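A note on notation is needed here, since sequence and fold are reported together in a single record. The reader may check this reading against the record printed directly beneath this paragraph.
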Amino acid sequence: MNKIHQPVFIGKEVKIGDGCRIQMFAFIPDGVTIEDNVFIGPGVVFTNDKYPPAKDKSEWLKTTVKQGASIGANATIVCGVTIGKGAMIGAGSVVTKDVPDGEMWYGNPASYRGSGMSKQEIDGMTGAQSLILNRK
């Protein structure tokens, strides 16, 4: 079961997996896929148009947040990226590139700052384990 704190904006064409926690004031437009057990902090903003305003939806870029990832408060996720399984994004970061599995990124623009989990931990992560990871 997901826990979504109001108010948030979630577009009609957003996919959200099981066990996700989405905090107040998040903005999640069409084209975003959030896999299982992801944490989205308060005020996180996703975009879907790299060069606004797009003339039609065909110009929108898709964004994916993989299982067990955690995104800190007020981060901005620029469209067209993938945030890897178990990855962590620091509060206030601006993500403009793909974030590999298990890595910790923060800053503006966000960059690699360390590894939160080993490849073995990520590969063996179950839904319950990723939910526990997000509560730490």
The longest helix spans residues 127-135. Confidence is low (pLDDT under 50) at residues 128-136.
